[in-house]
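Work Package 3 (structural annotation) set out to generate three-dimensional models for the target panel prioritized at the project kickoff. During this period the team completed the workflow that converts sequence records into discrete structure tokens, so that structures can be stored uniformly alongside our sequence database. As a representative example, we reproduce one entry of 300 residues exactly as it appears in the project archive.
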Amino acid sequence: MIKLPSGVDINNLIDDIRIFSWQAADILLYYSKLLEDSDGKRNILKNNNVNDPVTVADLKVNELIIKRINEKYKNINWDILSEENVKISSKGFDSKTDWIWVLDPLDGTKDFIQGTGNYAMHLALNFKQKTYIGFVLIPNKNQLWITDGKKTWCEKRDGTRYKPNLLKKNNLQEMTLVTSKNHGNEILKNLIQKINFRKVEIMGSIGCKIASIIRGDSDIYICLSLPGKSSPKDWDFAAPESILKAAGGAVTNLDNQELTYGQTSFQQSGVIVATSNKDTHGSICLQIKKIIEDNAIYPL
């Protein structure tokens, strides 16, 4: 059984992060509203990188969450790995502790800018390079997904709770796939066509995609990184994996191996598969791997 660092109670911690998360929601919804105006968009964008934009909202939420954790939990033996801090720091991130918070203050920044509502805040507490507890906040849906490491549930701002509703399908052709629209990936498109899913839903943010699986709106998500190109990072997957795994689903690489965090450049490369059923996940990975190999779609 995993024990939290000395002085930290799991229930109090979840209560605190719940409060911090809804404060973050206020920031994200405020700037989302400002983005509806073209002048607002110019003021909110902090860089001109079309492929990796940063907004004032990213930075404000980043500052809020880190400040709140550090204020509430002084002298606790954990570190905080944040996407925004990695981008701006020249020192890198070198942790000597088993406990690491992994934060993406705004996952789905392109969708946030485009006004689709498919954006999320990710926050996970990892132990020894594996996910333990996690939070995925989807402000536009008034949803905060939480796992205490054993179970997953969703809360609305008024405290209303509801449980996961994972579907249990075994056949790829009967499944609804949720995939990205902001990443032009012809190899992945080819794989999707070969599998011939029942339905394909387009959605931003990995957190939003994984939440759609937990809600029962979709069955599977496939992430395929192109060789030599950028890959998702730890902060993209840590919180989403934590909530799906505790709900009864799974997130692994194509060889059905659990993701490991804190590796070189925080990369999560290759082919990653998320499904709604941990019991059949391995066989689903095998089916996908066979389709890739038989059609020479991707170098394995």
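The first helix runs from residue 10 to 34.
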